[in-house]
Amino acid sequence: MSMDTGTFLVDMLSNFPFLGFIIWQYLTAQKDLKEQREKMETIRKEQMDQIKEMRTEAKEEEVQLRTRFESVIKELNADRDALVTQLEARIQALEKQIRKIFHALEDLKAVKSKVEKIELKEEIRKEIG
Fold first, then answer.
1. pLDDT tens sequence across 53-107
2. Is the dihedral of CA 76, 82, 87, 88 positive or negative?
3. Residue 1: is its pLDDT beyond 60?
4. Which residue has the higher pLDDT, 113 or 13?
5. What is the rounded CA–CA span in Å between residue 2 and residue 8?
6. pLDDT over 60 at 2, yes or no
7. Radius of gyration of the chain (CA)
8. Looking at residue 61, what is its pLDDT?
9. In the structure, what pLDDT confidence band is assigned to residue 3 with cuts at 50, 70 and 90?
């Protein structure tokens, strides 16, 4: 064996445990990294499931609020329509009563006119007679 080969073998044998340690450390790090990736993937999937669940709940709440809002609007529209109908009926009733009053006033005017004529005739009779 030559000196260079002997030195090389001595260096290799003295560094072999270190190389073994480096290889073991690399393999362990790769294994740990794989485990961390798997854990992160599991966590990511759980978070995505939670987000999907939250979105579903939010959509359900939105539908419930929308349904409630629509029912309130329908009730308000029905109340408004009923109020308009009642007001129309009252206005029509008032118009009818006003027409009756004007008709009664016309009758009273006619009676007043007749009374004035009668009074005038009586005054003329008193003056003549």
1. 999 999 999 999 999 999 999 999 999 999 999 999 999 999 999 999 999 999 8
2. positive
3. no
4. 113
5. 10
6. no
7. 54
8. 96
9. low
What the block records as the tokens of 128 is: 């003549």
- Tell me the two tokens of residue 39: 């854990």
CA distance 12 to 105: 134
Residue 83 in tokens = 């109020």
The maximal CA–CA distance of the chain, rounded, in angstroms, is: 182
Per the structure block, which two tokens stand in for 24? 């073991």
| Pure H helices in the chain | 3-128
Amino acid identity of residue 73, one-letter, is I
Task: State both tokens at 60.
Answer: 């359900």
HSE (side-chain half, CA atoms, 13 Å) at 113:
6
What phi and psi values does residue 16 have, to the nearest 5 degrees? -60, -45
d(CA 75, CA 94): 28
Residue with structure tokens 């006119």? 113
